Amino acid sequence: MPTPDATASPSDRLPEWLSSSPSGDAGEVPRPRRSGRRTDAFLDRTLAEFAHATRHAVFAEEVARRDGLLQRLDPRVKLGGFVALVLAAAVARSPVTLALLTIATLAGATASRLPFGFLARRVWLPVAVFAGIMALPATLNLITPGPVALRLPLGAAVTRPGLRGASLLVLRASASATLAAVLTLTTRWDRLLAAAQGAGLPPAFVAVIDLAYRYLFILMGAALETFEARKARTVGALRLAQNQGFVAAVAGATLQKARVMSEEVHAAMIARGYDGTLRLAPHPPLGTGGVLGLAALMASAYIVFILDRILVALGA
Amino acid sequence: MHIPDGYLSPSTSLVLTGAMLPVWQQAAKKVSTRFDSARVPLIAIGAAFSFVIMMLNVPVPDGTTAHAVGGTLLAIVLGPWATSLALSVALLLQALFFGDGGILAFGANAFNMAFLLPFTGYAVYRLIRGRAGVGTGRYYAAAAIGAYVGINLAGLATGFELGIQPALFHTASGAPLYSPYGLKVALAAMGFAHAAIAGPVEAIVSVLALGYLHRTQPALLGEGVPTGRSQTIPAGVSPAGSSPGAAGSSRADLRRLLLPLAVLILLTPLGLIASGTAWGEWGLDQIKEQLGFVPTGMARFAERWPSLFPDYSLPWAHGRFGEIAGYVLSGVIGLILIAAVAAVAVWLSRRRGHADSGRNRFAL
Amino acid sequence: MPADIYVLDGVSFEYGPSAPALREVNLTIAQGESVALLGANASGKTSLLRLLAGLASPTGGTITAFGLPLTAETLRDRGFAAAFRRRIGFVFQNADAQLFSPTVAAEVAFGPLQLGLEEAAVAARVHDTLALLGLEHLAERAPFHLSGGEKRKVAIASVLSLNPDVLLLDEPTTGLDPRSRAWLVRFLRTLRGAGKTIITATHDLDVVGRLADRAVVLGEDHRVWNDGPVGAVLGDRGLLIRANLTEPEPL
Q: Which of A165, A176, A272, B235 could lock B175 by a disulfide, CB 3.0 to 4.6 Å apart?
């Protein structure tokens, strides 16, 4: 009985349309033109997003392995310190405070083998620009009334409170993003999770996040290949609805794979003794270095807070 | 719809994170499986899946692309409680490991996308689907409308959270400390963006994905009429053991979950404190002031559509009091309408669940 | 003189600053050839195939396909991209990922539909391709549920229905039982006989001799170590050992 794979004898004679070569029915390959119609953006953009996520993750793992100031700190210290600093940034009322905080953060990053220019360009700048564009209309008297800073035609004007609000948004968003980036880039993600668990996050949640991160890349890889396969077979234009159908099909196929994977992972965990509660490796005790580091970070956050109050009182 | 850090005040973030705590707690309790140990991989991989879905670019008519969240889709396949956990974890991963969406703002994003979106979407879906079978026209219509309503509600909530910032948090001189756009602008912008773009995308992706699943693996969607037992349950997840307290406790849960919403609704009137007129919403007299004249086209059409609440004021109450009352009333009515749709959908779908067997643990 | 389909000049590719995949590859492939890209895992064969398929851009050097430059920029022109993709069929290593339509028949019809062929022509192509690969009985099945070998066949079918000039195959024999493997080699030879260009990336030495007439060996340092008649390459045991394609001593 032949196996399903063998298929006794598929026709060895090729159909006529297949045996005509080269490209009998296709003509010449046209010269690529710059001004020609562009290919479908949704394929390229999705592929670019996948690539970006993978690159980010690989890069983060590599940075976390470098020997720098922040990498040597206990992740619990960093987590606590980070939360304090982000809160300080969140309540600041003076743009000067936020600017100083950003510079200090970038300096700390440089001491951790994260080049100043790199973070400034890749993290700080895009967030600041996005916030800036968002906040631009809000500088006008139509949104934020107040004393005029710059008169514009048609009765519009840039107001002083408007400018201040915009600068606060830009600086605050970018400072927070930079702090977050420094934390996540200098800390191995599994130790970051363990730190969160130490801080009170229930073990079940930690287990879920842990697994999710690992399997993210597998699912992403599968979806990525499907998009590539689709790109490789894009030989004409499909209607919008068909393209949307393709994206939805990838979503559905990914869900199916996810389901299968969840059963396989469960089986693998059971086979290795998992019974419902994840036991993570315990953390070594904090040590003097750790305590000092934590104190230093907390103190910095407090200083930022006080400094902000002073600056506001001074009118900055 | 992801809110980055810096756009919301810490207190707003705190309130919304607080609102999510009971949701997470309840979800963790509700997602029980035949094997307790299957829970973790199930939600983890659900989270990985949501993350991937949020990265997909869906082509839209004008040639650009938009993103879907897939919250209602997941709620239909996994149930809303599992979805709220999976989406929350996906959002956390995005914020923590990939810098997408703020870390302090995580609670707010979770509230909008991992709570409002899937629960409303699922409730509307159940309401409209009624007893229709899987794969019928009504089934898909229910999914589409549920997805549309769910994401619009989430979008409006986001607009609301952003919109109350300048009124509540500003310096003495009036400079906004966080998001600078008031309620009118924020709600209008968010409302439009979601009604016109994100909503249809979400609906289309949900329907098409369900269609694909129905063709390739119908078992994943369950069969036939939704009753307490045959509700969509992925393999490895057991049907509900009947818990007698389920019906009563779910009502209490609902009350607890509606409370934060009620608080937020009550804070609406603070929009009054924002003075001035929102950009673009000028009346004819303001246009005349700024331009020196009124374009004839505008003048002709201005009176053609009398609105219910001109200038957000009540026609029969004049002066400052009338202004305030009118503003409050129009804002509150708008929000009540939204909440009412959701609440009625939830209430009606729960009634049906009761009629079936009361043992569906995925019902609200 | 058969035309050159591909000309690679000093092509390098890396995933990141510390992750090279290919170093300075010089290669010319003419129409009608059957070339085997031999190399151990991570030698760069898959990356090379992806470059040839226009799915990635070299980080150094240039690729010319059909006499025209193949870059991310040129592929943005819809006309050029469509004509290029129509001629190049890529069969991925992971057949699963390649299949995205709800049924086998729909998957095979996908390409011809895009070409704008009429319904009758599309149906004919689908029918012919399924018959050619012995898949008629699976036409209405979902690809998701098929066995590994069947999926591989559907993947090949979905690419063949476009009548490409060039077939790029990534480890096509992995996971196939001996009968299926033999069938595949026979099939590829038939296609070759009809004038198709076949480029196969593999480390399966058993099939290479029957499948290809030319072998390009990629070393673990991501460079081309040898490029010549397949018989000569397979006979050079020292080379094969150094390139990690065979064991140093019999086990």
A: A165
Q: For chain C, give every domain's residue range.
A: 4-242
Angle between helices B117-129 and B137-163 (to 10 degrees): 150
Instruction: Supply the ipTM of this predicted assembly.
Output: 0.85
pLDDT digits (tens, 9 = 90+) for C199-208: 999 988 888 9
Reported pTM = 0.75
Within chain B, how many helices (H) and strands (E) appear? 14, 2
Rounded to whole angstroms, the Cα distance separating B259 from B316 reads 33
pLDDT band at A155 (very low <50, low <70, confident <90, very high): confident
Q: Is the pLDDT of residue C87 over 70?
A: yes
Residues A61-72: pLDDT tens digits?
888 888 887 888
All residues at 6 or more sequence positions from C193 whose CB lies less than 8 Å from its CB, including other chains: none
- Domain B10-356: state its class: mainly alpha
Q: How far, in Å, CA of A274 to CA of B37, rounded?
A: 7
Interface test with A, best of B36, B50, B57 (most A CBs within 10 A): B57
Answer yes or no: are the C-beta atoms of B49 and A219 closer than 8 Å.
yes
Tell me whether residues A245 and B208 touch, CB distance under 8 A.
yes
B102 touches chain A (CB under 8 A): yes
Residues 6+ apart with CB under 8 A from B288: B294
Between CA B98 and CA A184 the distance in angstroms is 9
Element (H, E) at A151: strand A148-151
Q: Between A177 and B60, whose confidence is greater?
A: A177
Q: Residue B212, class by beta-carbon neighbours within 10 Å (0-12 exposed, 13-18 middle, 19+ buried)?
A: buried
Q: Looking at the predicted structure, is the pLDDT value of residue C145 above 70?
A: yes
The helix/strand/coil state of A116 is helix
Q: Which residues contact B170 (CB under 8 A, 6 or more apart)?
A: A161, A165, B176, B177
Tens of pLDDT, residues B282-322: 455 555 554 555 455 544 544 444 444 445 444 444 555 55
| pLDDT tier, C218 (very low <50, low <70, confident <90, very high otherwise) | very high
Q: Helix, strand, or coil here: C197?
A: strand
CATH topology assigned to domain C4-242: Rossmann fold (3.40.50)
Residues of B with Cβ-Cβ distance to C102 under 8 angstroms:
212, 215-216
Which residue in B162, B147, B345 sits closest to B254, CA to CA? B345
